[in-house]
Amino acid sequence: RAAAPGHRALAATKPDAAPDAAPDAGAAGGLPLGAGGGRARSRQRRARIASGEVQPRALAAVKLGAAPDAGAAAARPWALEGSELAVASAALDSQAARRSPNEVLVVVRNEPLSRRTMSRLRPGEWLSDELVNGYLGLLAESCAAGGGAAGGVHVMSTFFFAKLNSSPSGYNYEGVRRWTKNVDLCACSLVLVPVNLGDSHWILAQLDMQRKHIEVWDSLHHQHPQCVRVLSQYMADEWLARRGKRVQVTAAHCDGAPLQRNGSDCGVFVCAFARCLALGTVVDVSQAVMPDFRMRMSFELLQRALTLRECEARARATPGSGSISVPREKRLPGRRKVRRHH
Predict the structure, then answer these.
(1) Does the pTM of the predicted model rise above 0.85?
(2) CA distance 275 to 234
(3) What is the pLDDT of residues 38-96, one digit of tens each?
(4) Considering 129, 218, 265, 292, which one is annotated as catalytic?
């Protein structure tokens, strides 16, 4: 018989195969494929699982976020456990999303997040503006709660760059000038700009306002000269408008940015990059941790607050790590509420 979808096909056994033939090491947890039939092997495997001799297949997928030992915890720095994992998993339940897609699970920064929207945090799904803006809003609030230093972190809306880049010339400073009327960007140490490219890809621009330098973080390692040109001009115009100074802006693409290995996780990478940069920690993300980070995003959005890891709490307690919050995101007139990009 053909193997069921998602299961490894069992090697064919010849009718005259010897009963003591060597077992297939890759089949059924190492059980022999000779005499006894599929049901007998299943009973044997269940008994071995019950005794703890072997683990069930895809245990990591079933217990997403669990860390069975210290070594595994070190290898999975973003994993959730226990009740936190249960709460996050329940919000991403696919059957519940089909039954009640419009049920609002939480309101984050005046933006209602429905089951349909939250379901985009499931592996393989593309993130929407609501999720990115909501999560980066929590990041801004967490930075503001740190307090301390005069300079801080400012996080832009996902709609900021689209407006800035909206004129026929490709640059519209007047269109966004009032977006930060209550924030002195020149006093900030860091400005983070999530950028959506053609409703198909997310990248993050890191603006160091004190060094007058821009770093572009792209999990696909592409070059973005238009993005660099527009944001460089914006930084120069901000310094001229706020301080009356003409400054020279430098820019680079981060060649060391962690690389994504699929076509759906760039939005998650952007949120992870922003978190690490804003909280002053090592950018300890990779393709392997994306399922854990998605689950963490789900939990933290539901709680409307970040749950800081030990390294993040230490970094925020360090003098000079204080930050400021940002205004609620603005939505462009006539723009679709949900863009179906990753």
Answers:
(1) no
(2) 23
(3) 455 545 544 554 454 544 333 333 233 343 344 555 678 999 999 999 999 999 999 99
(4) 218
Active site residue 208: no
Q: Rounded to the nearest 5°, which phi and psi values hold at 288?
A: -65, -30
Answer yes or no: 222 catalytic: no
Rg, Å, the chain Cα set = 24
User: CA triplet 136, 223, 251: central angle to 5 degrees?
Assistant: 70
Work out the number of other CB atoms within 10 angstroms of the CB of residue 206: 19
> Given 186, 227, 266, 276, which residue is catalytic?
266
Catalytic residue among 143, 154, 201, 276: 201
| Residue reference for tokens 């983070």 | 192
Looking at residue 217, what DSSP letter applies? Answer: E
Q: Among 59, 31, 55, which residue's Cα sits nearest to residue 43? A: 31
Q: Is 271 one of the annotated active-site residues of the chain?
A: no
Of 194, 201, 191, 210, the closest CA to residue 162 belongs to 194
